[in-house]
Amino acid sequence: VLGVVVVLSLFTPVFKIVDSNAGRLVTLGWSLYFYVRWQIDCMRIPMKVDSPSDSDKLEFYRMSRNVYMEFSGLVLALFVFNAARLRGRIASLEEPQKKSD
């Protein structure tokens, strides 16, 4: 879902919706969600042991994967927020030039 929002906010006028107050709150809500999940998953990574069983290895790699996925979601949500905000600023700066032309 976030990947689609990135593409839409970068290449279409959807950035206006994302840059509105409601869109900013939703995007920052996503960021907060991913940050909390990332912190929880970081705390849940099992410690390495000397001779791990197959289930121990699987659990370690699964939790490590979840940590990376949650961090990627956090970075992507913050990128959507910043990209829409910057496109909004650019549009507001270009608007007076279009009116004078």
TrEMBL record:
Signal peptide boundaries: 1-16
Keywords for the protein's UniProt record, in alphabetical order: Signal
Name assigned to this protein: Uncharacterized protein
